[in-house]
Amino acid sequence: TLQVIDTTSIAQGVGGGIAFGGNFVGSTETLFAEIRGIKENATSHDFDGALTFSTRLEDASIAEKMRLTSAGQLAIGETAPDGLLHLKGSTPNIIFEDTSSGSNSAILKFKKTSASEADDDALGEIDFRGLNDADEETLYSYIVANSTDVSDGSEDGEINFHTMKAGALTSTMTMQSGQVGIGVSAPDKLLTLGQDATDGGQTAYLKILDKDTDTTADTRLEILFSKYHTGTSAADVASIGGGVEQWSGTSSNRNAYLEFMTVASGNRGQALKLGSDKSALFSGQIHLGSTNQFR
């Protein structure tokens, strides 16, 4: 074993190292990088030590870039890591580059291997933190994955998205067992929207926005209902649409309509149109609250 000993008196940061250098101009030598084993504190009889890696930039001295602490934590751009791996810098990008020729992709894996797995265990979490205007570190949003059912053969999982709203973290969206809930933590349908509202307040709604600022009339937004009929070939069966009948360019000067369309003999056509003047245009058969048909 090669030993490099620093005989300096006990102090934080002392320790032996290995330096690497060479010629940088002509036959003039300089040091390019070094590895050192240092004492982490100035306490007598305390063996805590770290391994540091230092490199050199043009027109600069050798400076530490990476540290492996006595606790087994790895820090890049940081000397006092807060976790197993701590990256710090003005642009701390992490890049996963896949050079395979097949269909494989780069993977970021969160794996829990507890000896006592249980329902609702947290499997992994991504936190998004920053400072508020009082220089306090704040958790603004996070994503967490849980194993909601660990029963062999009938496992279930979920991913929760939490965001900050008016100073409090709220569960914004839950993806659970193939179902999605927005404002709902336990969705029981493919998509469930939920919102608490005081009496007379606004309840949950789904908003479809046309971002085109063209004020031309007959702008139409639509919810389309379709069904597979052969393999993955889909056919439209009905739709609900809203449109603009008259538009003069201001939000207070517009006329709009709501339209229901159904399919008959393979063709989709208008079944009911509610106009801005409260009129209703019927085409086909309409059922309102019973099996009676209106035309």
Describe this structure in words.
- This protein has strands at 17-25, 28-39, 49-56, 62-68, 74-76, 85-87, 121-131, 137-149, 156-165, 168-176, 179-182, 191-193, 220-230, 233-247, 254-264, 267-274, 280-282.
- A hairpin with a 5-residue loop joins strand 16 (267-274) and strand 17.
- The protein contains no helices and 17 strands.
- It is elongated, with a radius of gyration of 32 Å.
- The protein has 295 residues and is mainly β.
Offer a few descriptive terms.
295 residues; mainly beta; 6-stranded mixed beta sheet; disordered C terminus
- Please trace the helix and strand order, writing H or E for each element: EEEEEEEEEEEEEEEEE
Oligomer: single chain
State the shape: elongated
Fraction of residues in H or I helices: under 10%
End-to-end CA span = 96 Å
How many runs of DSSP E, i.e. beta strands?
Answer: 17
Mean pLDDT: 87
Overall structural class, as computed from helix and strand content, comes to mainly beta
Largest sheet: 6 strands, mixed
**Proportion of strand residues:** over 45%
Strand order of the largest sheet: 1-2-3-4-5-6
Enumerate how many helices there are, as a single number. Answer: 0
Low-confidence stretches: 288-295
CA-atom Rg in angstroms: 32 Å
Outline of this structure?
This protein is mainly beta and 295 residues long.
Write the layout of secondary structure elements.
Elements: E1 17-25, E2 28-39, E3 49-56, E4 62-68, E5 74-76, E6 85-87, E7 121-131, E8 137-149, E9 156-165, E10 168-176, E11 179-182, E12 191-193, E13 220-230, E14 233-247, E15 254-264, E16 267-274, E17 280-282
Parallel strand pairs: 5-6, 11-12
Antiparallel strand pairs: 1-2, 2-3, 3-4, 4-5, 7-8, 8-9, 9-10, 10-11, 13-14, 14-15, 15-16, 16-17
